[in-house]
Amino acid sequence: MTNIVLAIVGLAAGLLGGLLGIGGSVVMIPCMRELLIADQHLCQAAAMIVNFFVVGPSVLQHMRARAVLWPVVSGLAPTAAVAVIAGVMLSELPVFHRSGEVYLAGLFGLFLFYVAAVNIGKLVAYRGGEGDERWDPGRLRWYGPVIVGVAVGLVGGLLGVGGGIVSVPLQQRLLRVPLRNAIANSAATIVLLSVVGASLKNHQLVTHHAHSIADPVLLAVVLIPTAIAGGFVGGRLTHALPLPAVRGAFVLLMLAAAIRMTARAAASLV
């Protein structure tokens, strides 16, 4: 029964991750914590593996729609891949080990509140017709994608997420990239980011925590098939559907998970 529920979680993570260009960790990690009572480091390690399979199919859909802006991705992806190493090492600081793992879980819960706030802001600001926006390459400066990449990599490595929830709004604000292009760029970046981050995080899990490599891999194997299907459909829906209804459901899910994780972390500290 647990495996069936995890497969459903993988499908939801793939759909939302592919649709919004955020990977699937913000869905998978809270659900794994709730279903398995697993420690935060194990959940992050497994989710970082699955993120590659969430965004891979969606990137193909974004490329077919010619939505990926490669001048942006060429600066964003390498920088994020380097910064994710620093983020993973931050997550392995002694303060986040053993009983201190609760701090990492609490930090993730606070991050989910941020995710919800970002999407609420987008719902409020939504006016429709974002497909009519056009990107002006003349606005791009080399340091813009670098700045965004550093933020994406640090957050992704520290919290075990794809980083898209940081990447998409920063691209829109700092690089003036339209929403659908920002989602496509984010997904393309996560392909590289997830490989680097998952490799390092799982190495740290085996060498510094009481886990074998089989623990995150077995979790990932259950999640990956439905995550692939969800990512394929989600990436296609990005260019076919308006986003407000999906964002509304996503906000409710994030708020529920954030409240649950921060409440559990606070209770552990009392």
The tally of strands reads 0
Derived from helix and strand composition plus strand pairing, the structural class reads mainly alpha
Number of helices: 10
Which overall shape is indicated by the principal axes computed on the Cα atoms? globular
Radius of gyration: 17 Å
> What percent of the residues sit in helical stretches (DSSP H or I)?
over 70%
Quickly count the domains.
1
Kindly estimate the percentage of residues that lie in beta strands according to DSSP.
under 5%
Measured between the Cα atoms of the first and last residue, the distance is 33 Å
The overall average pLDDT, rounded, is 86
Low-confidence blocks of residues? none
Biggest β-sheet: count, sense, barrel? none
N-to-C SSE series?
HHHHHHHHHH
Helix-strand blueprint:
Layout: H1 2-20, H2 25-36, H3 40-64, H4 70-91, H5 101-125, H6 143-159, H7 164-174, H8 179-208, H9 214-238, H10 244-269
Helix pairs in contact: 1-2, 1-3, 1-9, 2-3, 2-10, 3-8, 3-9, 4-6, 4-8, 5-10, 6-7, 7-8
